[in-house]
Amino acid sequence: MTIYMKNNKQKEPSPASSSPPSYSYRRFFSAPQYHLFNLFSHLLIFGFGLLIGITLTLFLKNFSLNFQIQQVFTPSFSPSPISTSNITTSNNDTKVVTLTRDRLRVFLKPDKAMHNMSDEELLWKASMFPKIKEVPSKHHTPKVAFMFLTKGPVLLAPLWEKFFKGNEGLFSIYVHSSPYFNGTVPQSSVFHGRRIPSKEVRWGDFNMIGAERRLLANALLDLSNQRFVLLSESCIPLFNFSTIYNYLMNSTETFIEAYDFPGQVGRGRYNSKMKPYIKLSQWRKGSQWFQIDRALAIEIVSDQRYYPVFKKYCRNGCYGDEHYLPTLVSIKFWERNSNRTLTWVDWSKGGPHPSRYMRMNVTIGFLKKLRYGSRCQYNGETTNICHLFARKFMPHALDRLMRFAPQIMQFN
Predict the structure, then answer these.
(1) Cβ neighbours of residue 163 under 8 Å, at least 6 residues apart?
(2) Sign of dihedral through CA atoms 127, 130, 132, 136?
(3) Which of 170, 214, 220, 160 is nearest to 191 (CA)?
(4) Which portions of the sequence form the region Disordered (predicted)?
């Protein structure tokens, strides 16, 4: 009982604290004024609370969103080791990409050539991916990308099959054919599934350059591709795979033919409206068929300065495929370019098209001449191996090419 009384005494309010807290203020306000002051105080407190609530809500929402994104892109269980790599974008921003081993394999070596990207998306992606400074894989093997620009099938495919046989993992194949071509390729062929999304290409039209850039962009998506070769349906290899592979991989230069030609089919095709971006003194001519490295391939698909100028003014007999790359390389990348092509073509007869070779033209002596009949510079040394490929060989020549390939070109 004593404890009960003691607690009651402790709970009794003192006379000083028995009046309401606002008692002292009520002496200075009338009843209406007091209620107005009380309302204003509550509104002020409510406003501060609302401001703090909004701030906390935005913070928590942002935190929750980031957490959800991290949960989506980060698997809860990953049996494969994780690899990271820095990617530098075109705006010089650096992003960290986290890849599982399986995703890394697909990232480095896309399984399929066909996709549903537009040209703009493809070129953007191709110009971004190769900016990775180091390929995060111990099993990375440099490859040569063989890019075929054709109307339909690769006419000399059986010869190329012999060329590629036994060298799997050292090459990639990309075929840009007419979008109206609906032929099929046997599943056993190295060309099976290697067609890329294409657009119509007309001879002499600037859309030929669009097709070349499209091939390069697709090939750049495979980070293993380090050398890029443009070929036609009538091209043949003059040496076996190992010789061509080593020649390309060990070269310190790119191979784009570029020269100043003062005649009507040279400087005569220049459009003065290209100034000030391209001057007449910078105008160059050369072969369409090139062999380049990854660094130059990136620059070509990323070009937003000279490509639009050519596209707008290189028309009506300009033949952009003979001038765009020679001019671009001579202006910006001439230090590392050899100013020659590795594809042999005979223009000695004149006319708009080079010589064509049928069955009767294919002899052992002729093939030897193509292989060793010239002299040039390679990595600062004189050599008689100046051409690795040749054109234009017609389908009728295939049987003789197949017969001479093991003996002359040392296939297999």
Answers:
(1) 237, 240, 241, 405, 409, 411
(2) positive
(3) 160
(4) 1-20
pLDDT tens track for 270-298: 999 999 999 999 999 999 999 999 999 99
- Quick one: angle between helices 294-302 and 324-332, nearest 10? 110
Domains of the chain: 82-339 (3.90.550)
Phi–psi pair at 397, nearest 5 degrees: -85, 0
Residue 170 CB-density burial (10 A; 0-12 exposed, 13-18 middle, 19+ buried) = middle
Query: Which pLDDT belongs to residue 112?
Result: 60
Model confidence over 328-353: pLDDT tens digits?
Answer: 999 999 999 999 999 999 988 887 88
Helix H or strand E encompassing 365: helix 364-372
Whether omega for the bond prior to residue 392 falls within 30 degrees of 0, making it cis, is yes
Q: What is the mean pLDDT of residues 380-404?
A: 96
Q: What is the mean pLDDT of residues 11-31?
A: 47
Tokens representing 133 are 């400074």
Q: Phi first, then psi: what are they for 293, rounded to 5°?
A: -100, 180
One-letter identity of residue 128: M
Which residues lie closer than 8 Å to 89 by C-beta, 6 or more apart?
A: 95, 128, 131
d(CA 277, CA 280): 10
pLDDT tens across 86-126, in order? 444 434 444 444 444 554 455 555 656 565 666 566 555 55
Reading the block at residue 274, the tokens are 């290209």
Q: Which two tokens stand for residue 302?
A: 């990323």
Whole-structure pTM value: 0.71
Taking CB atoms within 8 Å and a gap of at least 24, the contacts of 357-362 are 357/392, 357/393, 357/394, 357/397, 358/394, 358/396, 358/397, 359/394, 359/396, 359/397, 359/399, 359/400, 361/397, 362/393, 362/397, 362/400, 362/401, 362/404
- Residue 381: per-residue pLDDT: 96
For 337, which DSSP code? Answer: B
- Residue 206 neighbours by CB under 8 Å, 6+ apart: 310, 311, 314, 315, 318, 320, 321, 324
